[in-house]
């Protein structure tokens, strides 16, 4: 493998790389998180289309020409350069510190392309910058090239986004303006269709198998972790039954949706179990299993939905937690629920998993939360299952994901 120095460039063809090539970034900073991103820029060096910023909350470009896989302190950007539109002439790879510290604190790392060339980096290369432009893959004279940049950049992710001309979504509603005399509004001018704005405040796991790893702060745990399930509050979208047939079948006004949030767990000592409203197995927050289900919303009418709390300060005693949900009553298919699970860890961006693309199966394995060497790893599952003969859906999920439990029929109180 060739070692590049800062400013060195080379044609991909000369490096033995084709149009399908991986860019691997390994970059870590003790006690901090580095957000690794790729900006797809136009001929003016601008992010004219926010969909071509590929990062933790947008893991692929629209046609999949750039796809991101994340792990702790590392990222792989899988490129299909032939699939990029002609408007994208440059892919710029960056890292930005999330939280305290500066780039001078980063550990020795690198950015490599296709196993052919690597560009090593370390904190000694930088001063007090909060971000770095690592390298770029760009098109010139009809050929794609790789360039090692290593340029420190003041400000974090938001500053990089502004530098490349992108638009950051507002994180909160604007404050009300003080009362004043009304100002006539100018005549409306037709505007082009808006491009979705980038959100830096939330991690959305888009595809099944997508992962994110979160690190706890030095000398402390993860705090009180909330797993929230919410869904729409509408009843089933079909007319109520009336007349004599309705009396026989119990028809009338359609019932609301009752999704249940639940989990299976395995502690580090191998103890398995489950927490769910069915059977009134509520768990406990301050003692094993350090997982507690708070209440049961039977209709979706509670704006806060359903919540499981995990004691992140005892996370070292937890091996893994499988978050799942099942349709206890109401809606006949998952697509109609608009269900979403939000995993909130203090001082970390929330992780969102949407219950999308489901059919009429009664159960959904949503996400796996795992203790990976002290790091909290979340993996999107969104795996819809049904019972098999006399085997319940609960048991099917448990068996599929290796939870050794004995099952019996249960009901809600």
UniProtKB/TrEMBL annotation:
It holds the Pfam family TerD. The keyword Signal does not apply. InterPro entries: Stress/Tellurium_Resist, Tellurite_resistance_TerA, TerD. This is TerD family protein. Keywords: Tellurium resistance. Coiled coil: none annotated. The keyword RNA-binding does not apply. Residues 21-164 form the TerD domain. It comes from the Bacteria.
